[in-house]
Amino acid sequence: xxxxxxxxxxxxxxxxQEDFAFLGTTLDDIxxxxxxxMCFLKRLKKLCAMTQKIEWTHIAxxxxxxxxxxxxxxxxxxxxxxxxxxxxxxxxxxxxxxxSKPLQEFINTLERTDEENARRLIAYFxxxxxxxxxxxxEGKLV
Length: 142
Hints:
Layout: E1 2-7, E2 10-15, H1 17-23, H2 27-31, H3 35-52, E3 62-67, E4 73-78, H4 81-92, H5 97-112, H6 115-133, E5 136-137, E6 140-141
Antiparallel strand pairs: 1-2, 2-4, 3-4, 5-6
């Protein structure tokens, strides 16, 4: 694996097919979000942090996956607010009418605020999304 630190909160890792085989996973595992694929991504993010001396904030996390022409795969882990906003804008393309307006308002708010407040808003947003996605825990509202 080849690691490239792009900034304090952004690292790219290039993974070969041999790396996938050695770690016991495939790109399909990652794209299908299997347990093996998710474990691989968590391990890879930790390796990026260790090798590149990154301290993740665990807020505004994005991951871009690119299959390169030679068969290697680029994983770009980022916690930049700009990357997070870009990801939200990409989500607008598939959002239904009910979701798109509040999502656009949230994007506009993030674009107008400073980084500290943006991280605070994103943390609250992500917590709310998790609660909506998984509203019960042992039969109780979370």
